[in-house]
Design brief:
With 491 residues, the protein is an alpha+beta fold. 31% of the residues lie in helices and 23% in strands.
């Protein structure tokens, strides 16, 4: 038995017990516990506390607490125990809910060797089968070294998750094998994603050596999506009991088809039915704005919008009601932004990028027919890399306005009394993919001269220069979404 002075490196439970000594400590406490010389201590704080050093806080715990040198080996960090160490942030939102701070990178995807066909023999599986998860609270009001470490536990994906993770792996590897690694997108899959690594530039492109020697693709790594990490945090670590419904009756439901095929089959078997017929079928008595959404979930076999698999995979059900001419009115909104955060973000670390690049939509399409709407079918959709770049241009133009100072001007109506507030954000037509505007008609402003407009501060957000304007959201343009729908669903 290989035993260090502090823990048994062959025993997962011993490694976990030693890791749990970190609970309640900050990263500075870990440095102080190491009793480093003052000069080395200062260098260590500067080195590991640098926010531009990806994985710096994890490296600190690897080297100063667990006593091994950080590495990028394909074997687990504790090979004799089969345990991988992952240090990852979580955040507490304004509403009190807990959320993972980011996706969890597992291991790099290699383009230089043959694809391992058997998921359970792959280095990806070896890295994710048993993980010592260490969650720290990322409180941006504190220095990085003062972030507290709150949760330490061993985690293995349950059987029903592993089945979907295996399907995700096969989907990613199929693109690599066909020489299409340049088409990989984190939004392609459910729980296991293919996230980008390195800056978004030509220098980050590498040859797809084994299957497409002449083609290049972005460096990518296997990762657990941020939505999946949030579910792990709340369900398995915090043990926060919430009621979720599952589309799967058992793992056997996806033995002969993928999860994506299962949900499309559940919806599309109702093609051609009107909303009135579906209301009768599911005993829904009254029509409301949420009728079509309720019908979508009922067709999936659940009664509420709290679907376990969708929570894990960042899948949003979106009902689209087309008029008789096949046009749609509504754009699709994202959560409201925080101006000060937006001004400081880099694109691939931004909240909007993380959400947009990993999100999938289940579009359920109804088309108006007389006084009712007929179900045309459904479509799983996520944004392509090419369109993500176009969205990036729109995001950067909006960010520049925030950084340079938003112009807010009163625009008086003809009566000379009532007015709107104009701003200089790019108009919807400026970008094919996205635009920015409020989610509500309620408004709140504090202008440069101190004048307040509106009486509810919760509708406003503070600009970098201290003024306040009505909260804004990013939106996917309705014209863009319409262009992404399968033609058969629009007829």
């Amino acid at each position: 038995m290989n035993v260090t002075e502090k823990y048994d490196v062959t025993n997962p439970l011993s490694i976990q017990k030693y890791g749990q000594k970190l609970i309640g400590k900050t990263f500075m406490d870990v440095i102080n516990d190491s009793k480093l010389d003052e000069g080395i201590k200062v260098d260590t704080i500067a080195q590991y506390g640098n926010p531009k050093r990806k994985g710096g806080l994890g490296n600190l715990l690897e080297e100063l607490h667990f006593g091994y040198k950080a590495n990028s080996d394909q074997e687990p960090d504790f090979p004799e125990a089969g345990v991988e160490l992952k240090v990852t942030p979580y955040e507490i939102r304004k509403n009190g809910s807990y959320s993972a701070g980011e996706r969890l990178v597992i291991t790099m995807i290699s383009y230089q060797q043959a694809v391992e066909e058997d998921f359970y023999a792959s280095h990806a599986y070896k890295k994710l089968q048993l993980t010592l998860l260490i969650y720290y609270l990322r409180n941006r009001a504190l220095p990085r070294m003062e972030y507290p470490i709150d949760f330490v536990t061993l985690f293995s994906p349950p059987e029903e998750d592993l089945k979907i993770i295996q399907q995700d792996y096969n989907k990613i590897m199929a693109k690599v094998k066909s020489g299409k690694a340049h088409e990989l997108s984190e939004g392609d899959t459910m729980y296991l994603g293919a996230c980008t690594k390195g800056s978004n530039s030509i220098k980050s492109n590498v040859p797809q050596g084994f299957y497409a020697p002449e083609a290049k693709a972005r460096k990518r790594a296997f990762c657990f999506k941020q939505s999946y990490m949030t579910y792990i945090l709340n369900k398995y670590i915090r043990e926060d009991v919430k009621t979720y419904e599952s589309i799967l009756n058992s793992v056997h439901d996806i033995e002969n088809l993928t999860f994506e095929e299962l949900i499309i089959e559940k919806i599309n078997k109702h093609q051609g039915k009107t909303d009135q017929q579906l209301m009768i079928e599911y005993d829904i008595q009254t029509r409301s704005k949420s009728l079509w959404s309720s019908l979508s979930y009922r067709m999936l076999g659940v009664k509420s919008s709290r679907v376990e698999e969708f929570e894990k995979a960042n899948i949003e059900v979106k009902t689209i009601c087309l008029n008789e001419n096949g046009k749609m009115k509504e754009s699709i909104s994202f959560p409201s932004i925080t101006f000060k955060e937006l001004a400081q973000e880099e694109w691939e670390d931004s909240k909007f990028y993380n959400d947009l690049s990993s999100k999938r939509y289940l579009f359920v399409i109804f088309k108006k027919q007389g006084t009712h709407y007929k179900l045309k079918g459904c479509q799983l959709w996520n944004i392509t890399n090419e369109d993500l770049e176009e969205a990036r241009n729109g995001w950067e133009n909006i960010q520049k306005v925030v950084q340079n100072g938003v112009k807010l001007e009163k625009n008086f109506l003809k009566n000379g009394i009532d007015f709107t507030i104009k701003n200089n954000f790019p108009k919807k037509e400026a970008n094919r993919i996205i635009h920015i505007r409020p989610h509500t008609s309620k408004r709140y402003y504090i202008l440069g001269d101190g004048e307040k407009i509106g009486d509810n501060p919760s509708y406003g957000d503070t600009l970098p220069d201290g003024r306040v304007m009505t909260k804004q959201c990013f939106w996917l343009n309705n014209s863009y979404i319409l262009s992404q729908l399968d033609e058969n669903l629009k007829r």
